[in-house]
Design a protein that fits this description.
eight-stranded mixed β-sheet, Rossmann fold, alpha/beta, 344 residues
Length: 344
Amino acid sequence: MAGTRRGHRLVVATASGLAALLGLVGVSACRSLPKDAVETGLLALPKNTPVREIGLERHTLDIEIDGQAMSVETTYLHVPASQPADPPLPPVVLVHGTPSSLVTWTWLIFGRDGGQGLVATLPDRDVYAIDVIGHGTTRSDVSPITFQRCADHVAGTIRALGLRDVCLVGNSYGGEFCWRAALDHPDAIGRLVLLDTSGSKRRDDEWLPEEIAMRENPLAKIGYVVNSRENIRHALVPHFPDGVSDDQVEEVFLVCENSANWKGMVDLAIDEEAHRESELGSISQPTLLVWGADDVAYGVERFARIFEREIPTSRLVLVEGSGHYPQESQPAEVARLLAEFLAE
């Protein structure tokens, strides 16, 4: 009853299908995996052993969201520099897309299959990976989840943690969280890296029927009741030219088992309207655009070239053998590109 996933959204069942399912299974269908269980499941995966060994940090921070001061929880991973510089160099802050969590960055940080990650290519910098509100393991009462609120959460977390001049890295929807944050807080963000990012207006014929259902179906927000590993695998396969692992499937499945995460995903699908595309030309930070050459969600010629053209400080690098998630398909190459960019 669920179909393909295009880049960052999972397809929900049709209204009639969901209604029939709920009628058959009753109240028990409206289960939601608690965030604690999501976190336990994510950290138990063999892929995420180095994350589990370091441990996640969780703090309630005073952050301004939509112009209002709020106390908002943030869960994040902090990997200290193994060879810290004196004085310390600005840290790297990683921001995932939707539906996802901070463990999408595990291979980029720690390496995969003998390839080097950021702990090797950038041993002199601290690395942070944030679980954004409405995602992953961060608990939050903020609703609805919007691009601007996520951008405010990212920027507010950076400020609350006392970080300065950071290199902010985002993938997919997370890329848009990052470039909005960079526009709003140029004093806190020194460099910007965008991987297959959203934020450019899509034509009417570029929305799949399932994506229209996500945006318009009144029952879309309870689609988590039909979440399954089979559907997740089917959804991920088109975005990984070399195949998708069981751990990767389980990560997305666990995230989507939580009702707040699912609702946040639907909120963002509805809010994907390129509200601030006209401001791309105002991004002043040096910007590296990293794009999977085989991205079927935001194709290179249709979307990457727009960001390359509109952001005056940008340069575009294509990653061969990668789809929408270069940090997972080619983590060693992305780690190398980040190190070169920060050495410029």
